[in-house]
Amino acid sequence: MQNSRIVIDGTSLTCSLVARAARGDVIITIDPAGVSRARAAWRTARAVAAERPVYGRTTGVGANRVVDVEWEDADAHGLRLLRSHAAGAGPLVAPEIVRAMLTVRLNQLAAGGSGVDPGVLQALADALNLGLLPPVPVYGAIGTGDLTALASTALCLLGERAWLGGPDAGVARGPGFRLGSSDALAFISSNAATLGEAALAVADLRTLLDAATAVTALSLLAVRGSEEPYAPPVHEACPHPGQVEAAAAVRTLLAFDHPTPARIQDPYGYRAFPQVHGPALEAARYAEEVVTREVNAAAENPLIDVAGRTAWHNGNFHTAYVGLALDAARAALFQTMALSAARLGTLTEPSFTGLYPFQASTEASSGIMILEYVAHSALADVRRLATPAALGSAVLSRGVEEHAGFSTQSARATTDALAAARIALGCELVAAVRALRMQGRAPAGGPLRAAYDVAAAVLDERVEDRPLDADIATAADALPAIARLLP
User: Fold this and answer.
1) 339 Cβ contact list (under 8 Å, min separation 6)
2) Ramachandran bin of 399, using left for φ above 0, alpha for ψ from -120 to 50, beta for the remaining angles
3) I want to staple 242 with a disulfide (CB 3.0 to 4.6 A). Which of 273, 281, 319, 375 is the partner?
4) DSSP class of residue 310?
5) Smallest Cα–Cα separation from 247: which of 270, 265, 263, 223?
6) Strand, helix or coil at 168?
7) Side-chain half-sphere exposure of 257, counting CA atoms within 13 A
8) In sequence order, what are the residues at sequence separation of 6 or more whose Cβ sits closer than 8 angstroms to the Cβ of residue 79?
9) For position 64, what pLDDT does the model report?
10) What is the Cα–Cα distance from 390 to 405, expressed in whole angstroms?
11) Distance (Å, rounded) from C-alpha 235 to C-alpha 31?
12) Alpha-carbon distance 206 to 177, whole Å?
C-alpha cells in the first residue's frame, strides 16, 4: 500500500484504513484476488440457486421467505426489493460515514461470501474515487443489516437515484452497474454502514485516549502532582494490562520532569488515572479487534460456500459483538472523562496551582471559571450516551425476526460521545497549558514538551477575562496532533 492508495483485498482492512479511505485524499484499488473470490462465489450462487431454494434469490425475504419467486417474475423481484427497502428517513448521515460504508462493503464483497456479480466491485471503487456518495438517511437500521442504506446505494448504481457530491454528480454521470435481480438481497445483506461508522469511532477513540494521557501528564505537572501512583511496583501488584499501559505512558511522558510533589497524596483524577484509564484502553482495543474482524468477514445471509458448493442460511448478519463492544467502550470512556473533569477542578484551585482562583489575572476576575461548566455540560452528554444500546429489543417482520442488537445505534452513540468528550478534554488542555504558562514553567523535554508546544503554539496567551470559546475549539482540534506524539 502506498500513502495515496488503499488496496482492497477482502482480508486486511483495518479501522485506521477505513478512516483514511473515508477522510483522506486516497485512491481505492481492488486486489485481483478479491475479484477472483467474488467471481467464484457469484458462479457458485447461481449454480446452487438453480438446484434448490436460496433465500432472497428464489424466495421472498423476511416473513415472505416461504414464498417462492416464480421464474417469470424473477427479473422484477430483485428490483422491487431494492425499491421497497430504499426507505430510510431523517437527515443524511455525514459523508465520511457513507464513504466508510462503501469501503467496508467493497471489502466484504471481496471476501467472497455474498455471491454478488463481481462487476459491482469496480463500480463501488469508482464511486469512492470520484467522490460520489449515495444518499443515506440516519434512520433505517437496527444492527441486523443496513438494508435501507445499501438499497439506496443499489438504486444509485442502477441509475434510479442520483449520486451526491463530486463536480459532476447526477444520474447520468455517476458510476453505474446493472445488478441482476438475483443479486439484490446479496448486495444489501450487510451491516457496512454500521461497521463503517464503528470503524471511524474506534479509530477516533484510540486517538482521544492517547491525547487524554498527554493532557493528564500536563495537568499533573501543573499541579506538581506525585509520580508515586505510576511507579512500576504499584502496577506489578495489580497487573491489569490497560492499567500497566496507562501508568507506563505517563512515566514516559514525565521522564524529563521529576517535580517535587506538593502533597503526600493527590485526588483521584491523578492518583487513580491508570486504574480508570486502563479499562478504556482495553475496551478500545477489544472494540477494534471486533470491528476489524467484522469488516473482513463474509457475513451475508445466505453465505455462499464456494468450496462446499452450497449456500448456508445463517445469522452472521447479527452484529451483537459490535454493539456490545461499543457499549462497553462508551461506559469506559465516560469513566475516564469524569476524571478529566475532576482534574480540571483542581486546576482552578490556588492550593493546587499557586495562582489566583480560576487562574484569573486578578483575585476578583473569573479567569477559566466557565470551563468547568462547559466540561460538565459535555460530560453529561457522554454519560447519557453511555446507556447501552443493546438494552433495546425489537420483534419485526411478522415475528420471524424477533431480536436486534442495535449496534447501529451504538455506533452512532459512540460517534456523538466522542464529539462531546473532545470538548471536555479540550477544556482540561486549555487549563493545563494556561497554568504552566502563568507559573512560568513548561515540560523539560521529550514527547510531553512536544505536546505542550503543539498546544501552546495555537492557544491564546492572554489571561485577562475574555471569551474562551475559541480556545476550547482550538484545544479540541489540537488533540489528534498531540496524540500522534505519544511513543
Assistant:
1) 216, 268, 269, 272, 273, 276, 277
2) left
3) 281
4) E
5) 270
6) coil
7) 25
8) 158, 181, 184
9) 65
10) 5
11) 45
12) 37
Q: Which of 56, 62, 47, 52 is nearest to 74 (CA)?
A: 56
Whether residue 128 is predicted with pLDDT greater than 60 in this model: the reply is yes
Residue type, 154: A
Confidence of residue 166 (pLDDT cuts 50, 70, 90): low
* Four-CA torsion 305, 408, 196, 320, nearest 10 degrees: -40
Phi, psi of 284 (to 5 degrees): -65, -40
388 Cα distance to chain centroid: 16
| The pLDDT of residue 66 | 52
Among positive and negative, which fits the CA dihedral 446, 450, 456, 459? negative
Hey, how many other C-beta atoms are within 10 angstroms of the C-beta on 340? 25
The pLDDT of residue 72 is: 47
Cα 278 → chain centroid: 19
Segment 289-306 mean pLDDT: 94
Question: What are the pLDDT digits (tens) for 215-234?
Answer: 999 999 999 999 999 999 99
DSSP string, 394-436: --BGGGTB-----HHHHHHHHHHHHHHHHHHHHHHHHHHHHHH
pLDDT on residue 1? 40
Cα gap 104→122, rounded to integer Å: 14
**Residue 29 bridge partners (DSSP):** 7
**Look-up: residue for cell 480556545?**
471
Beta bridge mates, 139: 89
